[in-house]
Amino acid sequence: MSSKHHESDTEASCESSEGAATTATAASEPPKPPPRGRGKRKTRRSDWEILEGLKEGQTYDRVPKKFEGFVLKKRKWPLKGYHKRYFMLDKGVIVYGKSGWDCARGKIHGSLDAGLSVITTKPRDGRIDIDAEDCIYHLKIKPKEVYMEWLEQLKQHRLYRQHILSFKELSSPTEEVVSPLTPISSPGDSKNIDKEISLVEKDLSHLEGILETIPQPKKDDDNKLRDFLVLAKEVVVSLRGIVRSVGNGINAREVEGGAATLRHALNQALQQNAELKSRLSRIHREASLDLNYPAAQTSDTIKSYSSSMSNSEYYDAMETNKDEDRTSSDEESFSSEGEGEADSLNSENSEPSKFDHTHLEPSVLTSSSSNLNIKIPEPLLREGRRTFLPAPAPSGTEAPSLWGILRKNIGKDLSKISMPVTLNEPLGVLQRMCEELEYSELLDTASKESDPVERIALIAAFAVSGYSSSFFRTHKPFNPLLGETFECVREDKGFRFLAEQVCHHPPVSACHAEGRAWQFWEETQLKTKFWGKSMEIQPIGEVHIVFPKWGEHYSYNKATTCVHNLFSPPNRWVDLYGEVSILSGGLTCNLTFVKVSYWSSRKHEVFGTVVNAEGVTIRNLYGHWNEAFYVGQPPSARCIWRMGTMPEDASKFYGFTRLAIELNELSPSLRDKIPGTDTRFRPDQRLLEEGNIVGAESMKMTVEQKQRDRRKKREEEKNPFQPLWFKKSKNQTRSGEEQWEFMGTYWEVRKNGFKNVELEPLW
């Protein structure tokens, strides 16, 4: 029964909802088992195959027999390994429990629709992965004969279920609601149907909420109630599938020949409108700003133009969380540094604290620690920061072409595969690394805190806050080119940041930042994998924070991110899961990002503890990575971080926060100060930001080809690439690997306009 799995890339999949796989395609004839024993392939490939589904116009009305038996199923995270579960296949619906007896009594652990799931198989290893949109199930079946029988039954049940959802009107209790799709006679009919579908989805969500609140009966005499709950949940799953199928059918029927022309005209209008807005905004800024402001007025100008929200907005945001009715005194009591410190724990999106100009001159930032003396370049904010992007995100039209690419790469690392530009957002990986400093005020506060336990709690809050913007983001950042850089100087927040793409195979990004009394650096290698309907991003690397004043060095790893519903842009959502361990001397903080579960309404939770060298818990931490983070136990816990408000219409603009909107801005004063390798000069990313999708796609191919040409030339000349601003260090990470260390020369060279530095043209 023990089953050792040696393919860590597959096992690490996004099980946050508990499963992923791929959407099936179809067989035009009754399914046949795949040929047995093809032997080993000559070329090394993933060997994953997609279970085909019903093709357009094909029917499959032969009712498959009920099939059941024990299967090895990968255990729910954070548990590892496999355990036996009893699976039952009945007319395309899969349920499972601990035993056949439990399933017969309705005591099931989960259910899914084979017709709506993406199923991938690996016959060589007896593997089956099922991506059920909200869950990913990893199964192992042995021996080979039993595996092939399960595979055959899955094919038949999947085809039959898809046939039912597409054509038939059945008489079974859970499927009587299915009706054949009727032609749409007019646009008015379509609008009415859309309205009805929205109402049905709303009712289903309400029903799910009611079902979640009903406690599970434990007594034997409550079998009827237990059976009702199980059946009700199955009906909800079935209804959701039916509604989704109806919606997809309507969308397919609404496509007309003139749609492409209308879309092109709309994009042109949006581009013109964005250009006019940009010009008007620039004229407004230039007309209203006095470049001779004294220091105090400059601070106010920065405050008015930076991404901020008022105190009333902040406390309004606090009241929106039904579980977090903490008073402001709870937050104020946390700080030992005086009035206003609690407010500084809110990000750039909350009201920034005013600078003490005795410590921060316009050109020099001196740390409160004698060990740091950081010179910040002249302020770059006098012309204001933008508050909106030039153009909204494109409509979700990339799914068909995206599926054609991804279906061939199940379980593979996508970082080496060129993806459609419509899957991207107009920011790069280096800029996303800078976003982790959005709530850098937490580090400022921690550097002043005398209690080491409170310091590590604030570091934990900072680690959690770095994920908050991910909640609204469903697009991937641009992969940096080798040698690409990004700098960010934030006088308003008191830090400067530099990142560089230091390696291409594997892709590694390194960054370094300096603040008032802290240093921050990390290197990240992102492994991106596709599981059918989900994309998983696994970061490899560590984050480091140093407080010279206290002689402390903190390091921690990062959680895994999973994007669900990849082929349904309006319904995409992000989940985080994994263990994050923060180490510093005798203290350790262990954080757990909890996977979303289909059977629970609790989402996006994170909890943890601070333990001393003896392993004794001395602090409890909890919260939601997309809302707030607390120290202590409810109801007396203190809020030490809360996410700021989002910009208006953020959902239309890639879900960007205020800081994200500002990162790719290229102002006239900045253009002459940064090197040509800076991400802001990347043309394909700029075209996407401006809404020119066709131009961005073409330019992306050009930029990537130039990088391949440069690599080929270096190989021919035997001249390996050397990063300009980072070097390999003998200091090792927890895993024993060498680190990339910031050489510290960038800011000095910047003063001379990079005159004596040979910058390789990237674009």
Explain the overall architecture.
The chain is of the alpha+beta class. It folds into three domains: 8-166, Roll (PH-domain like), CATH 2.30.29; 187-254; 301-570 and 663-717, no CATH class. The protein is built from 18 helices and 28 strands. The strands form five sheets. It has an eight-stranded antiparallel sheet with strand order 1-6-7-8-2-3-4-5, with helices on both faces. The protein has a six-stranded antiparallel beta barrel with strand order 16-17-20-21-19-18. Strand 16 and strand 17 (535-540) form a beta hairpin. Helix 4 (187-213) runs antiparallel to helix 5 and helix 16 runs antiparallel to helix 17. The longest helix is centred in the first third of the chain and has 32 residues, at 223-254. The protein is globular. It starts with 7 loop residues before the first helix and ends in a 12-residue tail after the last helix. One of its GO terms (molecular function) is cholesterol binding. Residues 11-29 have a biased composition (Low complexity). It is found in: Cell membrane; Cytoplasm, Cytosol; Endoplasmic reticulum membrane.
Please render the helix and strand layout as text.
Elements: H1 8-11, E1 49-50, E2 67-74, E3 82-90, E4 93-97, H2 100-104, E5 110-113, E6 118-122, E7 127-131, E8 136-140, H3 144-166, H4 187-213, H5 223-254, H6 259-288, H7 295-305, H8 311-319, H9 328-332, E9 365-366, E10 373-374, H10 399-406, E11 424-428, H11 429-435, H12 441-448, H13 452-465, E12 476-478, E13 485-490, E14 495-504, E15 507-514, E16 519-530, E17 535-540, E18 543-547, E19 552-556, E20 560-564, E21 573-584, E22 587-593, E23 605-611, E24 617-624, E25 628-631, E26 638-642, H14 658-663, H15 668-671, H16 683-689, H17 693-717, E27 726-732, E28 738-742, H18 746-751
Parallel strand pairs: 11-12
Antiparallel strand pairs: 1-6, 2-3, 2-8, 3-4, 4-5, 6-7, 7-8, 9-10, 13-14, 14-15, 15-16, 16-17, 16-18, 17-20, 18-19, 19-21, 20-21, 21-22, 22-23, 23-24, 24-25, 25-26, 27-28
